[in-house]
What does this fold into?
Amino acid sequence: MTAASSLDQRQFTLDWGTTYHVTVLDLGLACCGVEVMAALTGREDSAEDLAGLGVRPVTGGDAGQAHVLVVSGTVTDVMLPAVRAAYDDMPEPKYVLSVGACSNTGGPYWDSYSVTKGIDQVLPVHVAVPGCPPRPEALLSGLAALHRLVSS
It folds into this structure.
């Protein structure tokens, strides 16, 4: 990523923050969850940085506060009802951001009998972030893509 595109992304996200706030609930189910947590709460001052950009992570796992559900990692068939329950508990409007190859398609475990072959088979996914695992910057790019989708 060049310095110019990084600046454009920050400016774009900053514009989102001045328009409205988005509350994010992360369902970190595997290694991609660590990358999402790094993006949302990586540094001591990152919570203030994200709040200034209009992104507020949900603490305590209360899906009733979130408008964006970030599904990151391998979704097993056993875990699927809990993921669906979190989505159902969210207020409208609600959006889904799928992060990582396992969440998007089942990843390297796609042929396992117990792995969901992509969360998009169960929930309406608005943005899918590729990678195994994707970098924290990819999550921010995914949030920016979601903003473009919602605002168009």
Notes: Strands lie at 22-28, 55-57, 68-72, 95-99, 127-129. The mean pLDDT is 78. The chain has six helices and five strands.
